[in-house]
Amino acid sequence: xxxxxxxxxxxxxxxxxxxxxxxxxxxxxxxxxxxxxxxxxxxxxxxxxxxxxxxxxxxxxxxxxxxxxxxxxxxxxxxxxxxxxxxxxxxxxxxxxxxxxxxxxxxxxxxxxxxxxxxxxxxxxxxxxxxxxxxxxxxxxxxxxxxxxxxxxxxxxxxxxxxxxxxxxxxxxxxxxxxxxxxxxxxxxxxxxxxxxxxxxxxxxxxxxxxxxxxxxxxx
Length: 220
Hints:
By secondary structure, the protein is an alpha/beta fold. It has 2 domains: 2-119, Rossmann fold (3-Layer(aba) Sandwich), CATH 3.40.50; 133-217, Alpha-Beta Plaits (2-Layer Sandwich). Helices cover 26% and strands 28% of the residues. The chain contains 6 helices and 11 strands. The chain has helices at residues 10-21, 33-37, 55-60, 76-88, 120-132, 210-217, and strands at residues 2-6, 25-30, 46-49, 68-71, 94-99, 116-119, 137-143, 148-154, 175-182, 185-187, 200-206. The longest helix is centred in the middle third of the chain and has 13 residues, at 76-88.
């Protein structure tokens, strides 16, 4: 897989090295010379010293051949511009953008070419909720401009689906169970998988199915 990463800060550098070690073709674009000079050695990563917000730079970098573009700079404006160019000018299949300021998160959507927006504060908040919430629907990740979400609910004793199988849940078409975590073990969900209190149910939800999923899984 060919991955182009814009931004050689701590996030971009680690991501580039990790992906390269896993056998991916990684190109890292960075305009700040100081960042380049301070980078740890990563021989498997190709490096371009240039501004990823410039169309000609992206063209010379072969962005039209990229499978994934990651806009990981420390500037939200730059990340939005890079995402928009990657999607509209080069038709990159998957564009992932880093959100530096939580208040800008609403901008990172399909209008700006972003398939997945990664906001560390929002992710940490979701993980805290996931760790302490029982009987609540927690949104963990957001995909495709917000139209698809990974949500989790830890089933309370009084949950309407406790004791029922997945096939008996009556989930709407916009929701599917992707995993069940039971006593620290992942259970591959099947139609005859019976759910019990304390089970962590992870679902992929699309469209406007959140309310129906909440009604089915969460106690009144």
